[in-house]
Structure formats: C-alpha cells, structure tokens
C-alpha cells in the first residue's frame, strides 16, 4: 500500500510534498495509518487530536494513545478536549454534528495560528460510499451524490482511493496498533447502520461493488462538472442585469429551455431558494407574486422573473399570522404551522410549542435593541443582544434575524432558539409544530 499511496500523492497531490501539514488523528485505524504513511514519505507534519469526552475513560485512553504515537513518530502533537454534550444542547445539534463543528473549527484555528498549509483527514473509499448512501436516503441533488471531495480548500483526504480493507491489511502486515471506538458498533447512528448492516450486503451481491461504486462516482463528478458548465452558459443566455443589480429572467426564453423547473433550480439555488414547486408556479402565476430566500426575492412581473437582494424596506416590515393560517412566506423562508400529537425532528428549523399559550394573531418581525427572551432549557431571561454576542453572530447575521412573537413575547428566534415560556409540558393539550423551510 505504501507504494500505491506514494504513487497517488505523486500523481494527484504532489503539492503536499514540502507543505506544512496537520493530520487529524483520532487514534483509530484510518488516521493512524495516514500518519504512518506520511511519516514514511518524510512529510513535514504535526498531529491534532480531539477528546470529545463522550466515552468516559475510553476517550482519555485515545488521547494517551495518540500522544504515544506522536512520540514514536517524533512529531509534535496538539490536543484539546470539548464538552460536546453541552455544545450540542446549546446549539440544538446532534452529537455527531456538534463534534464535527467543534473539531473542524479547531483544526482551522490551529492552521491559522501555526501556519499549516493543509489539514489531512483519513476519509477513505468506504467513507465515500457511506456518505453517498446517507445523502441518497435523505434526498439530494447531484451535488450530494458526487462523494467527499479529495481537496476542499485546506482540507485534503489522501486516503480516498483506498478501501478500509486495504488499510486494515496494511496495518496488520506491519503489526501496528490502533484504538477501537466502541460507539462504532452501535447501529443507532445511520452511518454505523449502513457500515455494519447495509454495505456488507451490497458487497455480498458483488465482490467488486466498492470498485464499481468508485467508477460510478467519477461519472457523477464528470456529470456535475458538465451541468455546472451548462448552467454558466444558461445564465449568459437568460440573465439580464439592470443598473440597479436586478436580474431579469425572460419567461419566454426560459420556456424554450425544455424543462423550466430544472433550469430554475440550477439557476437560483445559489441564491438560497428552496420552494421549487412555488417557484415553478410563478411562471404561469399572476404578476406581483413573490418568493423569498434568506437573502433574495424573486418577483413575477409580466413576462419576467425579477431576482434581487432583499431591500431594507422589505426586510423591516412586520407580518401578521391569524390562527387559521397554516403557511406564510417571509424573507427567511416559508413558515408552516401544524397541530400534531407527537414530537419529532427537533432541529434549528423546527420547534414545538403549547398552542394554548399563544395569543393570536402572531407576528413576525425583525429584532430590535431591548428585546429579550427566555432561552429554552435555561432559567431566567436574556437580552437578544447578549445572546447574539454569546453565539458570535456577525453584524450581517444579526441583521437577518427574524422573530416569531405572541403579543410582546418572543416565541422563537427563527433558525436559532425557542423561548422557554411556550415549551411543551405534561399538561399541554395542543402541540403546535412550527417549521421554517
């Protein structure tokens, strides 16, 4: 495997030679082998290890193992630890997503502070297959089916062409040790379920499944690049930019493209739009109909669709929501209201509240100085200005914050945090599910 790795670096990632590298190392098989391969190629590198404090003594033993490995390889090591459970709760994230945010933010901070040119992670061909299947199961465009990029900014994944079986065989051949993460055996996580239950069945159907998948992935990447080039050409043909930076899209020319919905998807997705069925209906809808993304609005104006940045006048208006309303389009997206009997899918875009505590009509407005709320899961109130500071929101991000209110009380800082006063309790009789899409 060493020679194959060396050839791959020489052919595709030659820029790593002579660069200052940071290797993300958990202590598991893949990252240990990546470190040893880089050592064998005499790369200039350091090792970074995150202790997420999720597996009690095991996590500490992983950290000690990585320190010992660094000593053996005579490389410097950076270690840190996180209170991952608290971070996940505070940011309304799954444990996996919280750990990902924490480690990637830390890696980028290390790269900046210590002038590392690239950060290497140990993703391999099996990881690529797992990611593909996860995206496929959730519904995705072709971008989600092109796999993990080998190079993404300063992040590089040199092991992507190699399978887990190759890496394991190489480790055993050299009698090298690594750490086993006991949580990888739990099928409560989708990725683990795919790895342990689904993918072995697929490989059992065809022993060349992984190799064939890698070939298919290359075809999908090529198709994605082709589509990007076609979209660039389509923009040249359809976009007319006025002096006021409003983009006019001719509906007549759009219809000549053959599939207007697909064309609009590729033309407008970079502007943050998601309501594709509604956008398609604009083509035949009445003039004046408009749809918002977080940053832009699309307006039907006779024979054109007009695309523009959301103006300050539009941004600062208030919206009233009567009790009978089930959906409202606002600049951040489409608010939907539904009475339900169960709670599921809790994330930053979904909240559940006690409907009987609401005072109608509800309102949606921008935040203002002096606003305060009672953060869900916490005691006491907090000013929004303090909350935004704690969340490290930029000025631009704060300007885009919208509030869902009941009277003068905040129900939800949309896309961020719900208010504790409207939470579901055992005595709740009506649960209202509110989503933003």
TrEMBL record:
The keyword Nucleotide-binding applies. InterPro entries: Lysidine-tRNA-synth_C, Rossmann-like_a/b/a_fold, TilS/TtcA_N, tRNA_Ile_lys_synt, tRNA_Ile_lys_synt_N. The keyword Magnesium does not apply. Keywords: ATP-binding, Cytoplasm, Ligase, Nucleotide-binding, tRNA processing. Ligates lysine onto the cytidine present at position 34 of the AUA codon-specific tRNA(Ile) that contains the anticodon CAU, in an ATP-dependent manner. Cytidine is converted to lysidine, thus changing the amino acid specificity of the tRNA from methionine to isoleucine. Belongs to the tRNA(Ile)-lysidine synthase family. This is tRNA(Ile)-lysidine synthase. The lineage of its organism: Bacteria, Pseudomonadati, Bacteroidota, Flavobacteriia, Flavobacteriales.
